[in-house]
Amino acid sequence: MAKTDAVQLHVRERNALETPTDLDRKGVSEIAGNLRQLLADVFALYVKTKNFHWHMSGQHFRDYHLLLDEQSEQIFAMTDDIAERARKIGGTTIRSIGDIAEHQRLKDNDEELVTPGDMLAELCADNQRERHNDIATASLIETWIDQTERRTWFLAEIAPTL
User: Fold this and answer.
1) Which of 7, 73, 89, 111 has its CB surrounded by the most CB atoms within 10 Å?
2) What is the CA radius of gyration of the chain?
3) Other Cβ atoms closer than 10 A to 131
4) Where are the domains positioned within the chain?
5) Nearest to 151 by CA among 15, 20, 8
6) Helices (H), 21-60
């Protein structure tokens, strides 16, 4: 009886993370995997941007320091949208620093001293890697799908409790 209860609990826990979606399991797995890598890269970019913000020096310190602080806020703001996108389609997302390290494709910069010019050039290159073709068009459609999936997700979470 205890083994049956444990199996039922495991099934309930696994089902708790499932979200209604019109995507097949393979599609969810592929998309969530890509979003996991993207999220890991965004976290890596955030930390690198803050690293350079904290270690900026030189003639244009104030301007670059403030610029990198502003950009790090923009980058961090992306994380929730990416993670929730994976959850909305029934996938899972990053769970820890180790998970980020396992999935990130951007390289960290642990150098003791990096010149301001090298910092900005490296961040420029890393930010360009995060761009994709024709995001503006895809974004319009994505917004509508995202809003629908968010409504479905919230309703699906509430409905069983009523």
Assistant:
1) 89
2) 20
3) 7
4) 23-131, 134-162
5) 20
6) 25-54
Burial class (CB in 10 A: 0-12, 13-18, 19+), 35: buried
Lookup: tokens for 61: 């310190």
The whole-model pTM stands at: 0.74
Place of tokens 């320091």: 65
Give tens-digit pLDDT for 90-140: 999 999 999 999 999 999 999 999 998 898 888 888 877 765 554 544 665
- Write the single-letter amino acid at 37: Q
The residue type of 99 is D
Structure tokens at 143: 């917004």
CB 40 within 8 Å of CB 99: yes
Number of neighbours of residue 142 by Cβ within 10 angstroms:
12
90 and 16 in contact (C-beta within 8 Å)? no
Say which CATH topology domain 23-131 has. Ferritin (1.20.1260)
Q: Phi/psi zone of residue 90: left (φ > 0), alpha (ψ -120 to 50 degrees), beta? A: left
Q: What is the pLDDT of residues 12-35, one digit of tens each?
A: 555 556 777 777 888 888 889 989
